[in-house]
Design a protein that fits this description.
171 residues; 3 helices; alpha+beta; 14 strands; 5-stranded antiparallel beta sheet
Length: 171
């Protein structure tokens, strides 16, 4: 068993951002999960619908490095009622136990790590145009939003309850 502890308020903000890349109507069930990679003093969450990927890295207490999947919806539901300061993730071979105070949720893997799609990183020339305020928030929150496309397109990304329209992305 591998144990990871994360501050609840940071995880709530992260899950809100990650939700932008969760598609309820996906035909790839593994994409209803978050890919989690815990190492050193952080945990990185990745959500993807294959067109858009959101990656968020949080400070965490990590006893032993671990790569695992956790259901986005189970985690989101737990966080909506959580009143504790921290969430503990205990990673086993086939499930993740999510503990908050006296509440314990067993979250069995739905899919395998190998089924989670590889993230396409842009190659060649990349042009990104963002609002200045958005960039400062992005750096402050340690979030990365990546959408890969052959042609410019408008991207809408939520920041809290406010939606920001990004001018274009050319890859």
């Amino acid at each position: 068993m591998k144990k990871i502890t994360v501050k609840t308020d940071l995880l709530k903000k992260s899950v809100q951002k990650l939700g932008a890349a969760i598609n309820q109507k996906t035909t790839v069930p593994v994409l209803l999960n978050l890919l989690c990679r815990a190492a050193d003093d952080s945990i990185t969450f990745t959500a993807s619908d294959t067109e858009m990927t959101v990656i968020d890295k949080l400070e965490a207490t990590v006893e032993e490095p671990a790569d695992f999947l956790v259901s986005f919806h189970v985690l989101q539901s737990l966080l909506s009622v959580c009143k504790e300061d921290t969430i503990e993730l205990q990673v086993y071979k086939t499930l993740v136990k999510i503990t908050s105070g006296k509440d314990v949720f067993d979250c069995k893997y739905k899919g395998k790590l190998e089924e989670f799609p590889a993230i396409k990183m842009p190659t060649g020339k990349t042009e990104l145009l963002f609002e200045k305020e958005f960039i400062s928030n992005l750096v402050e929150d340690k979030s990365i939003v990546l959408s890969v496309s052959d042609e410019p397109k408008e991207i809408v990304m939520s920041e809290g309850y406010k939606f920001l329209k990004l001018k274009r992305l050319v890859v």
